[in-house]
Specification:
By secondary structure, this protein is α/β, with parallel strands linked by helices. It is built from eleven helices and 14 strands. It is 33% helix and 26% strand. Strand 12 and strand 13 form a beta hairpin.
Length: 303
């Protein structure tokens, strides 16, 4: 299911939290939603779900969410790890959530087992750890097997093994043709998880593109070529206005280019290549570089 967020906008009195924000979430892919603290990610998700009033609209396969029924088979959302009645058992909490879509008892047990909460199904979640609360929230989101998952910081409180399980689960979920939008401040994990990224800062859109395209934005991105004809290739590139530097014997580094472009030039001119690989910055490096001006607070600054 394709999601289109169109011109989302939100004010909190004098604070312009989300500013004319537009992007898409494509089916079959995991889209990472990134931004510094206070950038408007949670508010944007609430606007997309109709939980907050504001400008713009969000369409799900061309229709507003209110036009889909049951809603829980269209979208499953998990925005708060403590969104449950503390004295209702985990099992009864999910039974309540599944009422709209007519979810069976067997499906509730299946989901509890899937997220690792089968042994505490009859316990009250008021005493759950943050990680257990996250698992219960995820169970509620996937209960009706929706076409869209929208998760806000679902890895908070999870141990490394659980984070890996969550990554594998979300990638598999998207691979079945469904859409996944997930926010996280764990950038190294998001680099492994997301196919696409939407990045905002101070409510403004910074980027909405594939993960490889976003990583290539870094000032340190380059193409590494190793060839017995590296000097000839460097001369050909220079003639086309493409700069390169030598990095050891038979190796040159070409900033600001793609492997496709350099490979095409080498092939056209009959140059054999031993290596043609991208050298990209980490997601964290690119993220910090592009959102620096959007940080609400910076280390070393005083108010």
């Amino acid at each position: 299911m394709r999601i289109e967020a169109r011109n989302l906008d939100k004010h909190f009195r004098s604070v312009h939290a989300v500013k004319d924000l537009s992007f898409t979430v494509e089916p079959g892919r995991v889209t990472g939603f990134l931004g510094p603290n206070g950038s408007g990610k949670s508010t944007t998700m609430r606007l997309m779900l109709g939980l907050d009033s504001g400008g713009g609209e969000t369409l799900y396969d061309g229709k507003k969410l209110s036009s889909h029924y049951p809603v829980t088979r269209t979208i499953g959302a998990h925005l708060d790890a403590k969104f449950f009645h503390p004295k209702r058992t985990a099992y009864s909490h999910l039974r309540m959530l599944g009422a709209e879509a007519g979810i069976s008892k067997a499906r509730v047990h299946e989901v509890l087992k899937l997220v690792g909460l089968e042994s505490v199904a009859k316990k009250r979640p008021g005493g759950f750890s943050l990680g257990m609360g996250q698992r219960l929230g995820l169970a509620g989101a996937i209960l009706a097997d929706p076409q869209v998952l929208m998760l806000d910081e679902p890895a908070n409180g999870l141990d490394p093994q659980s984070i890996q399980w969550l990554r594998d689960f979300l990638k598999h979920y998207a691979s079945t043709g469904k859409s996944v939008l997930v926010s996280s401040h764990l950038l190294s994990e998001m680099e492994l998880l997301a196919d696409d990224v939407v990045v905002i800062a101070r409510g403004n859109l910074i980027a909405a593109e594939s993960m490889p395209a976003f990583l290539s934005r870094a000032t340190g991105s380059a193409v590494v070529v190793r060839s017995p004809q590296s000097e000839k290739l460097a001369e050909l590139l220079s003639a086309q206005g493409i700069a390169s530097t030598t990095d050891g014997a038979r190796t040159i580094v070409i900033p600001g280019q793609t492997t496709d472009r350099i490979g095409e030039i080498a092939f056209t001119n009959g140059i054999a290549l031993s290596e043609l690989s991208p050298r990209t910055a980490s997601l964290e490096q690119v993220f910090l570089e592009l959102t620096e001006s959007g940080q609400e607070y910076r280390l070393g600054e005083t108010s």
